[in-house]
Amino acid sequence: MNALPIEDMSKTYIEHSMVIDNFVIKIGSQMKDSLCRVFSDGVPYQWKENDDKTIIPDASIVCNIRDRTNVSLTGIPRFVMEVLSEATESYDRNEKMDIYRKVGVSEYWIVDWRKKQVEIYMFDFKEDDTSYAYLFKKVTEKNKEELQLVMFPNLHISFDELFQLNGE
Prior knowledge:
Blueprint: H1 14-29, E1 37-40, E2 45-46, E3 54-55, E4 59-62, E5 79-83, H2 89-103, E6 107-112, E7 117-125, E8 131-139, H3 159-162
Parallel strand pairs: 5-6
Antiparallel strand pairs: 1-4, 2-3, 4-5, 6-7, 7-8
C-alpha cells in the first residue's frame, strides 16, 4: 500500500501558528468551568449543510461537543477564527465565510498577522430568513483596546496577547 504524501496547502509561516496558539491558550485558560471548549486547527467539523464535507477552522469555540461522529464534530461553533496566509486568504474570505454563514456560526474573526489586524464578522438574518455576513468591527493597533469576543463577552484576549510573536 502506497501512502499519499501530505501536501501543505497553505505554506504558512510559523507566525500563523503562533497567533492560533496565543488565542487557544489564553481563551482556553478562561474556559475551565465552561460547557464550551476552544479548539485549535486540526479539529475537523462536518455539517450536512456543507454536504458533509470536512472543514478545519484555525480556531473555534463550540458548546455542543457531544454532537460528533467518531472523528468530526457536527455541532455548530459559536465562534470561528481563521488566520490568513497567502495561499488561503481568498478561500478564508469567500468560501469558508460562506460555509460558516450557511451553517449558523455567529461570530467569525479573520486575523491578518502581517498587517496586525482583526476583522470581526457577524452573521445575521434578513426578514426573509436568509443569512448574511457583515463586518462588525476592524481592530488594528489604533483601536486595539476594542478587541473583544462578541459572543463570549466574559472571555478576554488583548490585541498584544493575540499578536505576541517571537517572545516579544
